[in-house]
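Q: How would the structure tokens look for this protein?
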Amino acid sequence: MTEHPDLAGLQRRLAEFAAARDWQPYHTPKNLASALSVEAAELVEIFQWLTPEQSARVMDDPGTAHRVTDEVADVLAYLLQFCEVLGIDPLAALAAKIERNEGRFPVPGTGDVP
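A: Here is the predicted structure in token form.
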């Protein structure tokens, strides 16, 4: 069984990859946000004209599955680099957002009734 890398290790590898190529001057928050948006759009493009049923089965086709997996990796890579540059802990940010949403959107029937 393959062990999954940790988030900090992946961020370190991405930073080392960029540093070895002298890409840090280009890895500004603006540029990384733009690149993240482009990669997310490339993921959307795969699903653009699919029916809901086709989109649910997209991973059944090895070629399409490979494209989806690559775009997910690209989106995550740019998001992790963006977080690294701005000093955001992505897991802490997500945990805090989930907590806020749990307060904003209580399970029906469990919240206060107006």
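The mean pLDDT is 93.

The helical segments are 7-20, 29-47, 52-56, 62-86, 90-104.

Upvote if useful.
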